[in-house]
Every structure is written in structure tokens, then in C-alpha cells.
Amino acid sequence: MISLNRTINWKPESTGSGRFGNWLENLVDWNLSRSRFWEPPLPIWRTEDGRKEICIGSVSQLKKEIEKAVNAGIMKSNPLKDYSKMI
């Protein structure tokens, strides 16, 4: 990863050689083996057969997709049915 970081044309250059570069240089194996999430999960829904994927873009879209799952018998109920606060 360190050698790959050196091949990237970072803008500004200090991005790759500064804090991120220092983090890579001082990285030890125990950092990689911890069972933690390093990025937020992506809101991607995939059908069971893997043929279709959608990226959920809003709470209202999520509610609609859950309703589709309820109507198809995949879910028993929509936990967001009464949720009205839009984030």
C-alpha cells in the first residue's frame, strides 16, 4: 500500500505524504486484523438472485422498497411505516 500510495498524483501533494502517508508508514498488522468497520455501509439493496441492485437515496425511497418487500412476502412488516421525520 505504501508503494502504491507513492504512485498516486495526490492534489494537494500533502494528502499522500502528510497525515495519510504517515498513517500508512506507521501501520501495524493489528490495525488490519481488528473487526471494525472502516467506512460507512453503502445503502445498496440486491435481490436474492443477485440480478438487480439499487442504491437507496432517501428515507422515502427506503420506505417504498420495504413496502415492496412486504407485498412480496419477504418481510413481515415495514418498520418505517409510521416514520415521518425526513432526514
Please explain how this structure is put together:
By secondary structure, this protein is mostly helical. 40% of the residues lie in helices and 7% in strands. The chain is built from five helices and two strands. It has helices at 2-7, 14-17, 19-25, 29-33, 59-71, and strands at 44-46, 53-55. The radius of gyration is 21 Å and the shape is elongated. The model has no long low-confidence stretch (mean pLDDT 80).
TL;DR?
By secondary structure, the protein is mainly alpha-helical. The chain has helices spanning 2-7, 14-17, 19-25, 29-33, 59-71, and strands at residues 44-46, 53-55.
List keywords for this structure.
2 strands, mainly alpha, two-stranded antiparallel sheet, 7% strand, 5 helices, 87 residues, single chain
Question: Strand share of the residues?
Answer: 5-15%
Order of helices and strands: HHHHEEH
Uncertain spans = none
**How far is the N terminus from the C terminus?**
37 Å
Please bin the fraction of helical residues. Answer: 40-55%
Average of the residue pLDDT scores: 80
Alpha plus pi helix count? 5
DSSP, total strands: 2
- Characterize the biggest β-sheet: 2 strands, antiparallel
Radius of gyration over all CA atoms, rounded: 21 Å
Identify the strand order in the major beta sheet: 1-2
Detail the topology: elements first, then pairings.
Elements: H1 2-7, H2 14-17, H3 19-25, H4 29-33, E1 44-46, E2 53-55, H5 59-71
Antiparallel strand pairs: 1-2
